[in-house]
Amino acid sequence: MATNKMAILPVDDIVARLNKDPEFQLTARFWYCDIRFVIGAEQYFMHIENGKVESFTHGTNGFDPYTINLSGGEDVWAQMFEEVPKPFYHDWFAASFHHEFEFGGDLESAYAYYYSLRRIKAIMGEAVRAGCAAKAA
User: Quick check: 120 pLDDT over 90?
Assistant: First the structure.
């Protein structure tokens, strides 16, 4: 899956998968959060209310709120989305220490809901791999 250029994230598929995922629903209860994902030059914004992804959009108007920021180059994201990531690409926190990846913002909220953030990464990876497989078929 590691490529020079990553496709645009399938935001609708990711929202549907997260909102159907029992692990995410359980761990994200009572969580209200805005997350910014930066993949190379592309920005995405996810809004979560009480454990449900209310919106996930590609692009910015320059005034999008966020409390947690996850950002890195396309190559880092591609390696993070592999089915079996190499060491230190398996997790947001590990990637921020060992690769050119930023995990920042309201870290108190991020750590309190870290398992929810890990489910987001897992679901994003599943959706990206499914999209790549569909395009290859």
Answer: yes
The β-bridge partners of 132 are none
49: β partners: 52
Q: Is the dihedral of CA 63, 75, 24, 94 positive or negative?
A: negative
Domains of the chain from N-terminus onward: 11-132 (3.30.1050.10)
Instruction: Say yes or no to pLDDT of 137 above 80.
Output: no
- How high is the pLDDT of residue 62? 86
Strand order, beta sheet including 52-58: 52-58, 42-49, 33-39, 68-72, 101-105
Mapped to the 3 state alphabet, what secondary structure does 74-87 carry?
HHHHHHHCCCCCCC
| pTM given for the model | 0.90
How many Å apart are CA 127 and CA 14, to the nearest integer? Answer: 6
- What is the separation of C-alpha 63 from the centre of its chain, rounded to a whole number of angstroms? 20
Gap between the Cα atoms of 135 and 129, Å rounded: 10
Query: What percent of the chain has pLDDT above 90?
Result: 80
Separation between Cα atoms, residue 30 and residue 5, nearest integer Å: 36
